[in-house]
Amino acid sequence: MASALSRTVNHLRKAYRFANSHHVGQFRSLTSVPPSSVLESLPLFRSIAPLDFRIPPISIGQRFLFRSIQTASPAGTVGSESAKKVEEAKPDGGEKSGGSSEQGGEPGKPVRGGPVSWLSFVLLALTGAGIIFYYDREKKKHIEEINKSSQAVKEGPSAGKAAIGGPFTLVNHEGKKATEKDFIGKWTVMYFGFTHCPDICPDELQKLASAVEKIKKKAGFEIVPVFISVDPERDTVDQVREYVKEFHPKLVGLTGTPADIKNVARSYRVYYMKTDVEDSDYQVDHSIVMYLMGPDMQFVKFFGKNHDDESLADGIIKEIKQYQGQQVKKGAPTP
Amino acid sequence: MASEAYASRNPDQVHTDVLLQARQACYKARDAFYDCVKNQSDKKPTELGCVGLLYPAECKKARLAYENSCRPSWVKHFDRLYCKEKRVQRLLDDKETRGGV
């Protein structure tokens, strides 16, 4: 089996060399000798292997070329028979020619295998393996990239930051003008509510005040709680002052003109609307949320109504520690 | 307390009825009233509070005290909350008797 393989490979090699050197000459001899059979077969060859091509496809050309040489030399009738054989063999794809080539192979002439030879198998296997290895490598590289990038993201706060916050101009509970710049350098927690709130705002502010105390005790961080009124018509400076001083001495109350309040509520994405308006009284429906803002007045995290003061304190401490850890990495001074 | 609630809308005047003391008093009165209603739940509810809250006549005194301590909008607010709670309770309790969702 192996010997046959090597024999065919050798024959093929010889045949290639043969064809290269004698290609031109053989074709010329073909045209000069016009027995009827060869003339018959000529147009076949023209259709099968265009004679303009000198170099590839050598294998097809040289196969039929040598067939015709063989057949042309003995006699015309034999040539016509084998030419017909060639015609049949071509659609067969090489089995018949493989069979008849066995006869031709015996006298030592180059063996014409079918289009599928052992060499082509080997080439196919090599190419296939090469492709597989290449793509496998590419895929591994790609997966590594994804893993690396996702890890880098996990270290940060999140996938991007929400566009919450912005400049504002309000009046604090002492009657002085207050902008967002007054809170730069400190951590603030902002809560939006109104003083005439029956139960929710008092509970939330109580919770916030208690959380501020807890944070101070646990981690020593100073947090500035801020209360912003969404009911500017009723919440005057005096009203706000009286209101906030009951919760925590550090609680800052902010109010302002309805336009300013509208501005700040919009930049913090806070919903508020007057509901059940009686003759002199009304409630204000609003989103119940606390925003934790960093020392540069950038939005860090929000806390909803579901947190109690313990979890609120823990959440804030965690965020501050994470932020400070990041600052240390960046090499910036921590506030 | 109630008179202050209906005081003229003077913007400079501080509405003390929403400050701490007033709030605490309001909450106390409110709780007292609702406890009364719960205790007397076997009695037939005949009186009508706002927003359709029915309560038995025994609790009328508590009701008046409650309405006096709190702003009217607050009274309404708390009543609404209470009714919602009761409805949910009823839904959970009556599941067997009603049969089906």
TrEMBL record, chain A:
This protein's GO cellular component annotations are: mitochondrion
One of this protein's Pfam families, by short name?
SCO1-SenC
Tell me the residue numbers annotated for binding Cu cation: C197, C201, H286
Keywords assigned by UniProt? Copper, Disulfide bond, Membrane, Metal-binding, Transmembrane, Transmembrane helix
Q: Where is this region: Disordered?
A: 75-111
Can you tell me which family this protein belongs to?
Answer: Belongs to the SCO1/2 family.
This protein's name: Thioredoxin domain-containing protein
GO biological processes: mitochondrial respiratory chain complex IV assembly
Task: List the PROSITE patterns hit by this protein, alphabetically.
Answer: THIOREDOXIN_2
Highest taxon above the source species: Eukaryota
The organism encoding this protein is Linum trigynum
Coiled-coil zones:
none
Q: Which InterPro entries match?
A: SCO1/SenC, Thioredoxin-like_sf, Thioredoxin_domain
One annotated GO molecular function: metal ion binding
Residue ranges of the TM segments = 116-135
Comp. bias regions, Basic and acidic residues: 82-95
Gene3D superfamilies found in the cross-reference section: Glutaredoxin (3.40.30.10)
Cystine bridges: C197-C201
In this chain the Thioredoxin domain maps to 157-325
From TrEMBL, chain B:
Location in the cell reads:
Mitochondrion
Main location per UniProt?
mitochondrion
GO CC annotation terms, alphabetical: mitochondrion
Q: Which Pfam families match?
A: COX6B
Arranged from A to Z, the UniProt key words for this protein are:
Disulfide bond, Mitochondrion
Q: Which PANTHER family match?
A: OS08G0441400 PROTEIN
* The protein, known as: Cytochrome c oxidase assembly factor 6
Which species does this protein come from? Linum trigynum
